[in-house]
Each structure stands twice: as structure tokens, then as C-alpha cells.
TrEMBL record:
Gene Ontology molecular function: bis(5'-nucleosyl)-tetraphosphatase (asymmetrical) activity
Name of this protein: NUDIX hydrolase
Coiled-coil positions: none
All copies of domain Nudix hydrolase, residue ranges: 7-139
Pfam families: NUDIX (PF00293)
SUPFAM superfamilies, sorted: Nudix (SSF55811)
Entry keyword set: Hydrolase
Segments crossing the lipid bilayer: none
Cofactor: Mg(2+)
Organism lineage: Bacteria, Pseudomonadati, Pseudomonadota, Alphaproteobacteria, Hyphomicrobiales
One Gene Ontology term from the biological process aspect of the record: AMP biosynthetic process
Length: 157
């Protein structure tokens, strides 16, 4: 009998954009600690008991950046990757939010620094190809054009 690899979905991924001149920037943060130490990443984190994925995205954004986000979208994509320590395939729903151009970021202790950057700069810093592919999708669907209003999560308001 063949063994199946489990598929898990227990975390979220959130890319926060802000308008800058005639384009958008994305925020990345440098991780500290034992998991992905010194790597640049978007907002990410686990979904807590009783919480929806989109609620987790808003909570994680506030915990990691201090930002309260009013407009949240499903990115209409999931990151997927294999985790050897869990011997499982992880599917992570991706969200996109827009921050005010003059927002003030306050990092928590999970990160040592942050930068607002162009999509190209961010792609050069993200460590995984899945993140870079997701970033390309977000640029195409949320920066280069107006997002589909059907993807807005109105309950987040």
C-alpha cells in the first residue's frame, strides 16, 4: 500500500503594498530567530483556533508591523511548498492589503528590520521561488491594474 503525504493549511501569507509616485512598493521584513533567520519575507503566520484565514492575516499584520489595515483582498492564489520536517505539503492562502503612503511601521521582535521596496528589489531578496512567483502575480493583479472587486474581503472592514 502506498503512503500519502498529507496536505496542511495552517498559516497565511500577506503582502502589504503602499502607493509611491506612480507605482506601488511592497514591504519585506528580515526575520530573526531560528526559523529562516536573516531571510527577507512578507507577513506570515499561523491561523489561531476560532480564527478565519483573513482574520489571521489582519492580526499578523498588526502584530508584525503595527499596521491596522482596512482593505484586504484574497490574492486568488495559494503558496504551496513541501516541508521536510512535517513531511507534508503546505498550502498557504495569500492576501494583499494596501497601507497608507505615510503609514508608520512598528516591528515586533520576530524581525530585525523592514524595507519598502520595488517589486524587483523584493524579488531579489525573497529566498524561495514560490514567493517570487506569488509576488509576480500580485504585481500583475494588484499593482499594474485595479484589483478585481470580487476579491475584496468586505467582512474585514
Amino acid at each position: 500500500m502506498k503512503r500519502e503525504i498529507p496536505i496542511k493549511s495552517f498559516a497565511i501569507s500577506l503582502f502589504i503594498l503602499r502607493a509611491r509616485a506612480d507605482t506601488f512598493e511592497v514591504i519585506l521584513m528580515r526575520r530573526r530567530g531560528s526559523t529562516l533567520a536573516d531571510e527577507w519575507c512578507q507577513v506570515a503566520g499561523g491561523i489561531e483556533h476560532g480564527e478565519t484565514a483573513w482574520q489571521a492575516a489582519l492580526r499578523e499584520a498588526y502584530e508584525e508591523t503595527g499596521l491596522t489595515l482596512n482593505t484586504l483582498y484574497s490574492a486568488d492564489i495559494c503558496e504551496q511548498f513541501y516541508e521536510a520536517d512535517r513531511d507534508a505539503i503546505t498550502l498557504t492562502p495569500v492576501f494583499v492589503a494596501y497601507a497608507a503612503p505615510d503609514c508608520r511601521v512598528r516591528l515586533n521582535d520576530e524581525h530585525s528590520e523592514f524595507r519598502w521596496m520595488t517589486f524587483e528589489e523584493a524579488a531579489n531578496l525573497l529566498p524561495f521561488s514560490g514567493q517570487r512567483s506569488t509576488l509576480e502575480h500580485i504585481k500583475r493583479e494588484f499593482a499594474d491594474r485595479r484589483p478585481n472587486p470580487l476579491l475584496e474581503i468586505r467582512a474585514a472592514r
